[in-house]
Amino acid sequence: MRSSPRRARRYAAALALPLAITLNALPALADLSPDPVPPDRASSTAQNGVALMRVVVADQSGVDKLEALGVDLAEYTKPVDGGIEVHAVLSPDEAQSLRDQGFDVRDAISDQSDYAANLAERRQALAAASADASATDTLTPLRAEWFTSLDNQRFLSVEVKTSATDAQTVLTATWDSGPGTAPDSGGTATMSRFTDAGQYMYHRFNAPLPITAVPTRVTITSNRGGSITVPVTKWLGEPRKAPSKHYVQDFVDHYMDPTEVTNRIVSLSKEFPKISEIIDLPYKTNGYRRQAQAQFGTGSGSALASTFYVTSKAYGSEGGNDVSVALVNPGTASAPLSVAVNGKDVVVNLATDASGAVTSTASQVVAALNGNSAASALLTAALYRTSTGTGVVTAAAATKLTDNLKAPASVSRQPFQMKALRIGKSRNGSKTGVFLYCQEHAREWVTPITCVETAERLLRNYAQDADTRKLVDDLDIFVVPTINPDGAHYSMYDYNMQRRNMVNYCAADAADPGRRNSWGVDLNRNFSVGSVRDGYTGGSTSCTSDTFAGPSELSEPETRNEVWLAEKFPNIKFAMNTHSYGGYFMWPPGAYKTAGRETLPRTDLGTEEYFWNASNHILSAVQGWRGTAIWPGRTGPVIDVLYSAAGNSADEFWYNKGIIGWDFEVGADVYDPATKQYRAVGFQPPFEEGHEEAMEFSNGQIGILEVARAYDKDKQRPDSTLVVTDTTDTSTTFTFNVDEPANVYYTLDGSRPTLSSPKLTSSGMREGAAKISIDKTTEVHWFAMDLAGNVEKNYKPDGNGKNYNKETVKVGGRR
Q1: The whole model's pTM is what?
Q2: Strand locations in 613-741, DSSP E?
Q3: pLDDT (tens digit, 9 = 90+) per residue, 264-316?
Q4: Phi and psi at residue 62, in whole multiples of 5°?
Q5: What confidence tens digit (pLDDT) does each residue in 656-694 have?
Q6: DSSP 301
Q7: Cβ contacts of residue 184 below 8 Å, gap of 6+?
Q8: Which end of the chain has fewer CB atoms at under 10 Å, N or C?
Q9: What are phi and psi of 277, to 5 degrees?
Q10: Catalytic site residue from 159, 609, 665, 792
Q11: 665 is catalytic
Q12: What is the DSSP string of 267-280?
């Protein structure tokens, strides 16, 4: 219930009276008339420090007192430790007076600085909207594509950017139904405005639209007056080569735990020793193990103050599970608190008063256990979360501590030896290396079997399939099917939604047994580039967060193993991190700072074009299994199509090692024609679906190997041309076209172009090459170089040759 302004003013008047007035007298004073205007709210133009404040009262009667006093309460209450939290609009004097009379007034939720910022932001938005409304907007098409997915259902995907970025700008797409048909015969749909970190990105459909006929052109119109018509192209148009009749595949028939997966690659290396070997990674994990624990007290309500827990010094599997604790009522009057230890059995004899009633509080029992040398050698005791420890404990029979781990004995409780399977005919570092790794996140059960399937295909098809033999002969392939073995064991046997590893970095207030599913480090937030500790978004420093980045960068053996592999084998030029789920194909950058959406440096134009060019081949390979299409809107840099992931591994490899790194998210949404809805598949779909995902994304991993081999064999030099895009009497605008993904280096001052010269940049996110404008006739010098290092015309940028491109671009006349 919200207080009226009249009651709020009366309350302020009461507070203006001498503070000696009792709390009981204040309601009566609140009825005084006429209403005086308190000095701190006298101005209608100055708010004078009024803020929305948190107030905590013991119970509902406290809320009633505030209401009776005429406090301006928001319609908000929340149970918290110590009572009920309510929110109140208070001036500084009002807040202080409440504190003086015993109310627990805490921090501000929002104050006048927030109000001023909101007004400024509103004024800026209104001004921008007004400016946009006064002129026709310009539309920039980013992508317009059709594709098929599963059962040959056709879909349309369109992305367009408008110069009018306010939320009042509405874009509508209209398309035909094939050559020679009416422009609006295919359908029409309003596009969604896509924003990220508060910034406008572009307009798109929230999901690709199902269509019945293939359109040739789509027209996008804006309510601001802008309009543009563009051709619709085919996404994933490259035909997938059918495997040879001797090609064998489908080697997984169930979800596998990390022990099974690791044994599988070890057995493969023994079966194919001439073309594979096992590499023991240097850092063993902590292992599938936990300290054993027991909790005494329920930890809720009035029992909170008497609740504590104990944790074994040894891991449960190393004796911690054998420790027991009993809380004994001695049954005599005036008994002292004492602790006795017999082997691994700890007995706490509780203190009693003269009547024989137990008097030992939780704090006293915790101190006694930690202060007894024999007991403290076995365990540590701690109060439960926010417990004050003042509550009297209840006697309890001997309780065995337990690590609560349920995996069978086949799963070792010792540190796990992570292994990489290295595949290649020549494993001496002379071939281009590719690193395929899976299951950084424990609950993503499809990913390790994807890596296993790929390893099986490479080794078992080598003898009879020529294409497989080319990959194994010409590449150096490293496969780590489970990066997170400890967390994955825990996910399979204890808590299926476990994302992180199993290490507990929490202090006592978050380390009780009830938190055991909230511990661990998110390995894909633990790397050193663009981390949360550098101010980037998407990781957490809270030990119970699912995106906990760890106590420091690269704190975890699992992540250090990944970095070690890249450093030990510098021939690794490509990497693929396979995750689940959603159906994405992504690359760096993968992190930004929310303020201003400050991103890690974007890849240069040539690299970005290389990523896009490769995606067509790789995603066509994915589609080749059962027809699944990864949407154009889910293809691109991580920060553009998903979110910011501070401290991820792809960024680590790209920015620190120059490794071209991709991310798969297997498990694309499935479209149901009957309901006309998309259905998410989840982390652990029924194995029938999980199997299909593993098969199609193993296809994709093979596609990445094919891209890497093409890179290794690439000796073809790029060819570029200068293209004038616009001319006026006073300026000319031009750009460069290249026949393959490559960077263009140019000069406008007549000097010889080098690798230090300006580089052609992107016009903007997903917009292609930028345009260069000049205001006088200029001789442009340039050359192109692809990612494999091939330079146009065999020009030597660091030499003295003159065989670079030259063209005079005129201003004020025809070229």
Answers
A1: 0.81
A2: 635-637, 660-668, 670-672, 677-679, 720-727, 732-738
A3: 999 999 999 999 999 999 999 999 999 999 999 999 999 999 999 999 999 99
A4: -65, -40
A5: 999 999 999 999 998 888 888 888 899 999 999 999 999
A6: G
A7: 174, 175, 176
A8: N
A9: -160, 160
A10: 665
A11: yes
A12: HHHHH-TTTEEEEE
